[in-house]
Amino acid sequence: MLTFVGLGLYDERSITLAGRDAVRAADRVFAEFYTSQLAGTTRSDLESFHDVDIEIRDRVGIEQQPEPILDAASESEVVFLTAGDTMISTTHVDLRLRAEERGIETRVIHGTTAQTAASSLTGLQNYRFGKATTLPFERSHGAEGVPDSVIETIEANRERDLHTLVFLDISIDDDREDFMTGATAAGMLADQWRTDALGAVVARAGSPDPVVKADRLDALSTEDFGDPLHLLLVPGSLHHIERDALAALADAPGDVLAENTVE
Description:
The protein is α/β, with parallel strands linked by helices. It folds into 2 domains: 2-109, Cobalt-precorrin-4 Transmethylase, domain 1; 114-259, Methyltransferase, Cobalt-precorrin-4 Transmethylase, Domain 2, CATH 3.30.950. It is built from 12 helices and 12 strands. A 5-stranded parallel beta sheet has the order 3-2-4-1-5, sandwiched between helices. A 5-stranded mixed beta sheet has the order 6-7-12-10-11, sandwiched between helices. A two-stranded antiparallel sheet has the order 8-9. β8 and β9 (176-179) form a beta hairpin. The radius of gyration is 19 Å and the shape is elongated. The N and C termini lie far apart (52 Å). The mean pLDDT is 95.
């Protein structure tokens, strides 16, 4: 059997009890951390907490060479770990489909997602989010500035009066990790889209000390939100409850909220 387990958002304790039981009962445990990271823990901490050895796979080892995982799952109990919720990435869906094609039984044990956490922490209603997008570093997409697709997604959502969740790039190069900050992301959008648009940054969702701040994009670009991971949200128009939530939970200026609220 191949069991996909979402680790949640922050550290080794963010996993569900069902997920923890599955990990501890597994014969082998694989993981990937290139689609997302747990900023509050390390591989050794995870292994110590669950009393298991974790075999890390890179993108090639999951997308192009999944046979070691599938071979193991065909004859024993295997767990595949990811940050967040395990089925958010198409990479993981593809691996599950490959297992099913080989007649390997699969199951999914969910974890908390960044989108639900962002909604919960800001008070922006989950049902009002449109398509999400990812803002990459320039070196990641090989061109200058913000990709057209990012701005097109935000504007398409706003035309439908929907909020946009912007995932921020994680760059892994020669074992060096670089996390895009909320301030960097806000500055990029302020420079190439709208300086005065309302944005909200969520830092370290799932941790004991998350930071939530809403303001105009140019103002957010000057803030220091601390350690990763960060998310950027670009709201559509605000319901009055969303307005009150951003004021109380994200310290949003009253004049900015008034400009974006539909009564």
